[in-house]
Batch of 4 targets.
Target 1
Amino acid sequence: MKDFFVAVGLVLVIEGLILAAFPSRIRDALETMRVTPDQQLRLVGLLAAVIGLGVVWWIRG
């Protein structure tokens, strides 16, 4: 459970740094997401989740 909270904390740090460094690009990305079809967003989200799971599985072995 400790690893889960560490992972959540790291996600927040990375997202916070990206938002602080590139606020206008984040707005542009959010607008792009707003007009992107739901099915395409689901596919990208699922792909990202599978890749992330693969990385964790590979590293944690």
Target 2
Amino acid sequence: MKKIDIIKSFLLCSLTVFTIGCSEDYFDVNTPSNTAPLEDLRMQDLIAPVMHSTLEGQRSAELSFGNYVQNFVTTGGGAAGQTSASGLWTQVYLYVLPNLEAVKVKAAETGATHIDAIADILIAANIGIATDSWDNIPYSEAAQGPDNNFAAFDTQEQIYTEVFGLLDDAIAKLSAADNSGFSLGSSDLIYGGDTDKWLRAAYSLKARYQLHLVNKGIVTPAEVLATVENGFTSNADNFAMYYDEKNINPWYSEEILARRTGNLSKDIASQIVSSMNGDYYPFLGGLVEIDPRLPLFAENNDEAEYKGFVSGGGGIAPDGTDANTRFREDGFYTSVDSPLMLITYAEVLFIKAEAAFLANGGTETSVGSSATAYTAYMDGVAASMDMYGVDGADYLADGAIAVGEGALSLHHIMKEKYIHNFLNPETFVDYRRYDFSDDVFTGLEIRSEVESADTEFPGQWFRRANYPDTELTRNEANVLANQQTPVTPVWWDE
């Protein structure tokens, strides 16, 4: 996997900065004084920091929503409150879209159609997570910079049309030859210039976004299945960016180093732990005591049991005893050289399993499905075990997982997707798509302690982020015209 040179990335970030609804003075303040003129920069120079910021934006979203989906809680079980997800907004609008606008100009000038396609995929991924977070967002007027200080917001429906258009255009370009002589090579922090993998990534992301619209009735499960057949084929295709000892992983920096110095860190929440330690899905074969992936996520002070923290519960587990799980110091996501991931092969298989389950007439509570759904589900679990580097043979054979085609339910598929996508903000989409159903996500509940975190919306799940205060200051009229309460569903969730 490609290691990243973060120092280079930060030096090159924000080379062509724009933002939404601000004065020309803003651009003077936020343009680095030591950056090279745009005309002197190569596409490779511009796109490397974009890839870095894209993955950092994903992590920013997870920092905002990971508490909502009960992956983690603040130290001692602190409850989730409203969020503006401002870190994601900054990455998308200050660091990603402006550089990609410049890349696309240079790609058009040189006929570099494959680089142009990669830029389209990155734009789609960034505006996709942005609209899933805030609903309506600036896009069509966003690139006008100082020429339009008060950019209008596009609706989520319009943004989804753009996402699919960008991905379809990228697929067409990557499926054809590029004779320009330009390639990203080592500047490609994700795939090292392998355009075949970028093509599979475009299909995989398209299937993800199509799945979001199935319950809306706009996309059929059959359409998702047709797309996913062209997606990732192994864990070698995972959209991942790896860190190294010189440029350390941000989860390691924030959770492990912070804990060592006594600063605020996070504990692992009860929902993810109880989905993996046998509480919600008791193991049946006698050979499995816990999901073998759990020790890669959490450590428990060498105690006999893993007991996750109840959000807002003051340090207790669901059974009322002391919780004990925190981020593992050398875990899969919390080591110095751990990756950040956008979408993986196992997720693609779970997308296929869910789409096949729904195509077979499955519902939130139905039992039994097709061979396609069951095979994709089991293959997804196996791919997850392989990605995390654990021996999953006993787990895969246990009757709690190997339920058989006739006993497969949606909650089996979504439980495994939830576990696999630990620390991936896509889980917040899944929770909303199924209305935070405990039929689909076994054991899920909004606890009284969580309600007290925001007394304005007692007993209601948060479904979107608030727009950042900085955007409210710069573009007040448009923000106020689009702002909804944090418990108001986004368009595809209505």
Target 3
Amino acid sequence: MVTLRVAIVGSGPAGIYTAEALIKQCPGPVEVDVLERLPTPYGLVRYGVAPDHTSIKSIAGYLRRVLESPGVRFLGGIELGSDVSVDDLMSCYDAVVYCTGAMVDRRLGIPGEDLPGSVAATDFVNWYCGHPDVPPDAFSLDVEEVVVIGVGNVAVDVARIMAKTAGELRDTDVPQDVLDRLAASRVRRIHMVGRRGPEHAKFTLKELRELGELPNADVLTVPGEVKVEPEDLAPLSRQIKGNVDVLRSWSERVPSGRPRRLDLRFWLRPVEILGDSRVEGVRLERTRLEGGRVVGTGEFETIPAGMVVRSVGYQSVPLAGVPFDAASMTVPNVAGKVSDRQYVSGWLKRGPTGVIGTNKSDAAETVRTLLAGTAPGTARRRLDDVLAARGVVPVTYADWLAIEAAEAGLAADLDRGERVKLVGRAAMLAACGRLSRPVS
């Protein structure tokens, strides 16, 4: 029986769940190569989940078992568009599945957004998660007030990490250089701002309650901003009602003089980030709902701040040689099919919606579509030969295990938890004996 050969571009949950679905659904033999531009797998599980959320990060154990399945290979350090092209992949595989997720933040589109001190939540999260694209000296936290724009789970993560002490994060995998900068942070007050009401906030009740239990910060709300009329609250879910109850209770708190303070604000939208050479504050307009839409009331407020973190959603970026819809920021597809022998899964397919587990059912749909429309035996070359001819040496799964071992060893040396992340490609490649390979 002819073996089906499939390339998956991206090794986050969407990519690895796609590999798992191929193994389970394919009626015949299948070979799956999971390509990743970084030296490390797991995508947002490694570089997006907050370091103090160890229960969510444990999903990596499940993904690990998929990568260790017979017929699955991890090929790290391979970037589509520079190391290989779409044409290369189409000549080497019977089908290609794109699973690169959503890698950048949506923009606010307001004056002052590009001032120094105005940063994307993606960059800040990548920083404290040790992503090799963001160096440990990218942030110094040398300001006393910060505004976080957005009231989703990512905004909650950012605010929580800023509000915690370095000691509370010591047993996590935060890189040591980043932990040192968090220890030196001058941040004393954090404002988290949402343009709608508390009943519209996207965070989960569990994350919200966790925020309110921070020992290092007073967490408060404004009474008038968290008031929801009974008739508006009645049809909402138990989760949302729980959120509103918690937020209401915080409006009755009296500051106890803890080292930091976190204010959750609602019904405010940013209209301008203020400052000359760097961020000095945010001008906000009071909002209300009109016909289901958020509109301004003409009432303004300014919050002084030396840093603004923009957390209003993620979006995907185009891949070289792959169709892309700039309006939806996705790859156009029908049930995962992009074109003949090309498929897509995850956020790149449907947009940044759902939780990590949502990618599993999404991947299963794409694989059903792929198996119904793809015949094995069309591949003519081997990717190994293409890469060898260009002098490109991929990071193997064994190399990744060596990186993991080095991170565990570093944690032991520093007397810090189970692992401490290595920072930068050079350190990772050194850990697996690959410094002879050119490092970008």
Target 4
Amino acid sequence: MTHPQPDVLPMANPIRPYAWGSRAAIAALQGRAPAAGPEAELWMGAHPGAPSVLETPGGRVPLGEFIAADPRRALGEAALAAFGPRLPYLLKVLAAEEPLSLQVHPTPEQAAEGYAAEEWAGTPAGAPDRNYRDPYAKPELLCALEPFEALCGFRDPAESAALLDGLGVPALAPFAAALRRGEIHEVVSGLLTLPAEGRADLVGAVAAACAADAGLAWAAGLAEHYPGDPGVVIALLMHRLTLAPGEALYVPAGQPHSYLRGVGVEVMSASDNVLRGGLTGKHIDIPELLRILSPKAGDPVVVRPVRQGAEEVYRTPAREFRLSRIDVEGEVELPASGPSILLTVSGDVTVYDNEVPEGSESRQNGPRPGPTGLGLAPGASVFVTAASGPIRLSGRGSAFRASVPA
């Protein structure tokens, strides 16, 4: 028996239980009681580290396998030509109750080179000291669902030097002097390579000074989570910002960042390549981090949406993904944009599938069957194939759409 081939398919999505996650945020979004342990990220995509599973007429199928079975139908010709037979983005709900590691992501060239080198060296794919899990870059965009605190990018080095001088910690004097010469890269290198004993003493003194200054109490809080971690001092050299709900932060390759607290919808290239520089108990490869790290000072790229038809689109230079928000009041039609994932964050939204069963007479003649409606409660998502064409929604609520730029 031939099963109908729908173009809108419900997704079952894994939750990553990282220690910094919230027990309540993702559960509240999905209408559940708080979890017993931390729930950090809800993943929606085909990344092999934690793929979504589709509910198809023939049974449950991992999204990657679904795409591999018919990549042209799932992805469309344009995405297939640009990225090969894989979904090029990963959509997440991120819920940070504690700070994430201070980190950077590689360029496409750096990722390909690093992955090839570790493959050649025989480093196991799941090894804790592996830097490159795949050969892809990882630009990312995080849109706040509530006020969201983050660190992103280096401030003007002269401003950072003045801040360090004001702390009154003698051991910071050579770092402040280097900053006045514009040597951000050298300062980060020097902090990360301090001997363990001297590093702990320095971070302890900086934390005590920050605790006495109301405007820097947040840095003292970082030291409570990560005592003796030089990332506490590096964080003082960075921009600290709070995104308002609906604002987004775009993070390009090489830019240092750390998410401190909040809940947001995040979209990125389908990669898990992270080079850590502090605020973590995980592996830090200092030489590789310094090779990837961009020492350029500059303001964070805060993105506000632009109206395009029924969508509020967050424009970025990323070629792998496009993120938009849709507020549904009644009926809405979205233009086709290759393979899409729709995630509802409030209210109730129905997504319609205009599928016609394979082999049915209505494919050749006669009227098409009416569209099939699939209701989405908050926290639920669907995968929409490129073959679906325009997407019809109805109801009252808000949803995010991840797709591929035209």
